[in-house]
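Page 37, continued from 36.
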C-alpha cells in the first residue's frame, strides 16, 4: 500500500463528501411541493451522512499523516424534485466508485479495508434506496401514505 496514493484517494473521497454536505443541504432547503416534508428530511439526512463520512475520512487522513482537503466539487443545483433525485443517484454512484477505488489501494491493510468497506456499504445503501424511489415514485408515495395511516 502506497501511503501517498491512499491519502490522495481519501482526499478525493473527502472532496466528494464535502460536495454532498452542500448539495444535499441545498436540496433540503429548496425542495417544494406536495412531497417536500418527505424529501426535505431525506435530503438533510443525506447531508448529515456525508458530514459523518467526511469526519471519518478526515480523521483517517490525519492518522495516515496527510492533510484533509477543504475543497469541494461543483454542486449540481435544481429545484425540480426528479432532477434532485437524479443528482442524488449520480452522487451516491460516484461515492461507491470512489470508495471502491480507495479499497483497491488499501489492499493488504485489513483495518483500512474494513474502514472503507463500512462506508462503502452505506454508499451502496444510498444507491439501492434511490433505485427503489426512481423505479416508481408513485408507489413509494403510496406506501409512505399507507404506513402513516396504518
Ligand atoms: Fe458518503
Amino acid at each position: 500500500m502506497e501511503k501517498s496514493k491512499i491519502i490522495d484517494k481519501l482526499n478525493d473521497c473527502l472532496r466528494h463528501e464535502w460536495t454532498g454536505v452542500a448539495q444535499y443541504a441545498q436540496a433540503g432547503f429548496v425542495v417544494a411541493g406536495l412531497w417536500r416534508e418527505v424529501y426535505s428530511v431525506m435530503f438533510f439526512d443525506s447531508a448529515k451522512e456525508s458530514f459523518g463520512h467526511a469526519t471519518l475520512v478526515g480523521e483517517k487522513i490525519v492518522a495516515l499523516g496527510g492533510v484533509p482537503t477543504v475543497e469541494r466539487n461543483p454542486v449540481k443545483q435544481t429545484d425540480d424534485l426528479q432532477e434532485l433525485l437524479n443528482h442524488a443517484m449520480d452522487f451516491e454512484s460516484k461515492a461507491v466508485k470512489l470508495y471502491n477505488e480507495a479499497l483497491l489501494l488499501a489492499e493488504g491493510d485489513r483495518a483500512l479495508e474494513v474502514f472503507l468497506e463500512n462506508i462503502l456499504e452505506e454508499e451502496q445503501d444510498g444507491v439501492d434506496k434511490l433505485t427503489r424511489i426512481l423505479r416508481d415514485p408513485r408507489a413509494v408515495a403510496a406506501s409512505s401514505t399507507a404506513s402513516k395511516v396504518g
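Residues 3-135 form a domain with the Ferritin fold (CATH 1.20.1260.10). Flag for discussion at group meeting. Residues 17, 20, 49-50, 53, 95, 123 surround fe (ii) ion (CB under 6 Å).
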